[in-house]
Write a structure and sequence with these properties.
By secondary structure, the chain is an all-alpha fold. It contains three helices and no strands. The protein is elongated, with a radius of gyration of 20 Å. It holds the Pfam family 6PF2K.
Length: 83
């Protein structure tokens, strides 16, 4: 007889913290994939959270709009706010 290579048992999930970071160009689906991955992991029983740096920055700066100079390393005011 043959041995069952794929037994019908639930996978054992190890409770170890894992961080997944999505980086890339704007409008390439990072948030979409992050939310879908979190939804799937929650569905199989893994507790997840999705964080958005952009949302965090807007909350901390009270919705202020900044241009690209905010991220310039030679901008001391921007450096202080980011820290």
């Amino acid at each position: 007889m043959h041995r069952n290579l794929y037994p019908a048992t639930a996978p054992k999930i190890v409770n170890v913290p894992v961080v997944i970071v999505m980086v890339g160009l704007p409008a390439r689906g990072k948030s979409f994939i992050s939310r879908k991955l979190a939804r799937y992991l929650n569905w199989i029983g893994v507790s997840t959270k999705v964080f958005s740096l952009g949302d965090y920055r807007r909350r901390m700066l009270e919705g202020s709009q900044f241009d690209h100079s905010f991220f310039d390393p030679n901008n001391p005011n921007g450096m202080n706010i980011r820290e």
